[in-house]
Write a structure and sequence with these properties.
Layout (H helix, E strand, L loop, with lengths): L3 H11 L3 H51 L12 H16 L2 E2 L2 E2 L8 E6 L7 E8 L7 E2 L10 E2 L1 E9 L10 E7 L16 E7 L2 E4 L23 E6 L8 E4 L10 H5 L6 E2 L3 E3 L8 H9 L12 E5 L4 E5 L21 E7 L10 E3 L2 E13 L2 E14 L11 E2 L9 E5 L4
Parallel strand pairs: 8-17, 11-12
Antiparallel strand pairs: 1-2, 3-4, 4-7, 5-6, 7-22, 8-12, 9-10, 11-20, 13-21, 14-18, 15-16, 17-19, 19-20
Helix pairs in contact: 2-3
Amino acid sequence: MLNRRELSGGKRDTERGISLFMVAGGLAVLLGVAALAIDLASLYVARNEAQRAADAGALAGAKAYVESGCISGGAGACGATTFTDLAKSRAVAAAGQNSVGGVLVSSLSSNCVTATPLNLSGTDPEISVTVARTAGCGNAMPTFFARIFGILSGDVSSTATAEAYNGPNICAGCIKPFLVPNCDPASNHLVSKNNPNANANCQIGSQYAPYFVNPTSGAPVNPGPTPTGVDGETWTLHLQSDPKIPSQWYLVDVGCGQGSQVACIAGCTTASWACGKRLSTVQGNRVGQMDAVNTLIHACGFGPGTCQDQITFSGNPPVPVITGGTNNPTPALRGTTNIWFSDSLVTVAIYDGSTLNPGKQDVAIVGYMTMFIQYVQSSPPDKDLITSVILGISGCGTATPTCGSGTISGGGGSLFPIRLVRNPGT
């Protein structure tokens, strides 16, 4: 008969090695968690990188539509092979400059990066770009800890679609250091003092100029083409000391101070100007501001028809048509009609319209105006005048502005903005 001591020793023998099984089981769980944490995180990062690459490619493709000029003659013209091939090559090239999972997109096989033109028979031509690292294109993302479970790779793919927006409103991203009043001076737009859109700062005789942008809602008051709207309306801006209010303009101090204004006016302001931002006007006399405007628009003199680009309107509703002047910096555009880019096309800030002191003063942005500068005059009796055509109003506030999110920064003057319209999967 076995004694108690022998029985207890046998029980211990049967439990030997149990710790090894527990460690092995815990290690499997640990590896699973590591696979989930590290491998999934790696795939998510790679997918975000693929999305950025697709975004860049789509925007580059849409910009190619604009730069090729196909949408100036109607978006349907962009369906020509010449334009679609250009848009696709630009899109693939731009996407290729990015990396996904440490691999340059340009080194991936051709079926990993695709660009597809869309909506070519519609109003706004689009292009869709897909960037992928998948097993199907032979370059899936490798895994690390998940390999122990037989999962050797994972697929990531992102798509972005951008369009060249050929709509009724026009935007430009190049800010010029001008402040213009929130007062629409068109005689057929004047209202009574009791009208909710009447700007008390902008009295003209017994009537008042309405706001360009309603300060409460942030919405453009008279959107759309003339005569009911402001798009296409000619507006001559006077020097701030001129009593012909409400068409006074002020120069914003963006670093040129009292010196030559050529660099500040002919170039683009690089800082972002957000709605509500306060801007300081230049104090006292300004040196060479009208010469600087002429430099901006490439005019060879003062007044109309002096070598600068010209703008006309065609169709119903009227569509702006720009013809390159003899001084256009791009020789191929000189004398060319329906050009897609002009330095005369600028964006300026709108302020409340009150009369400002001659000295330096801070005012707040209430909106933006895109306009085409036709010519300037700098001789008496009409001195320091800027004659322009209004092409679009963008407001601040709760209403959706026509030119984006309410913050504009440097760029170039183009009749057609580009924008991302869809990011599938985000």
